[in-house]
């Protein structure tokens, strides 16, 4: 089963935007993400509606970050994506009248809901500024390891 990597991809794009002093086109973001510019535009639309990014058309246009990285959390981005399902597993529904299936599904569904609630709550504790700081630490460590001043 293929994993939904949109959240990871959007976070990647947002951090690229944060590092870029000028607007980035859908084409340049798509190249960085190894995807199609249409996919970037579709994903970015939800972020624009939430006020996290803006876009300008024409020469010199593109996407820009319009929010403070410390003010936006993983939960904010997750919600802007439409709150996709976080778990790839689900309940069996082949025999809805079966009391065993009902008992199993009740336990699983309750546990899945609790797990998703916990995960979304944790998303609310992680800001894009934290991700950016981690990126900068990794970049600095790699730069020093390569012997660059």
Question: How does this model look, in words?
Answer:
The chain has 149 residues and is mainly alpha-helical. Helices cover 57% and strands 5% of the residues. It has six helices and two strands, in the order H-H-H-E-E-H-H-H. It has helices at 6-19, 26-33, 37-49, 74-80, 99-123, 128-145; strands spanning 53-56, 62-65. A two-stranded antiparallel sheet has the order 1-2. Strand 1 (53-56) and strand 2 form a beta hairpin. The chain is elongated, with a radius of gyration of 20 Å.
Note the main sheet: 2 strands, antiparallel
Structural class: mainly alpha
Helicity level:
55-70%
**Rg calculated over all Cα atoms:** 20 Å
Number of strands: 2
β-strand amount: 5-15%
In the sheet with the most strands, the strands line up as: 1-2
Low-confidence stretches: none
Assembly type: single chain
Number of helices: 6
Shape: elongated
Please, what is the average pLDDT? 90
Distance from N terminus to C terminus (CA atoms, Å) equals 45 Å
In N-to-C order, the SSE pattern is: HHHEEHHH
SSE arrangement:
Layout: H1 6-19, H2 26-33, H3 37-49, E1 53-56, E2 62-65, H4 74-80, H5 99-123, H6 128-145
Antiparallel strand pairs: 1-2
Helix pairs in contact: 2-3, 4-5
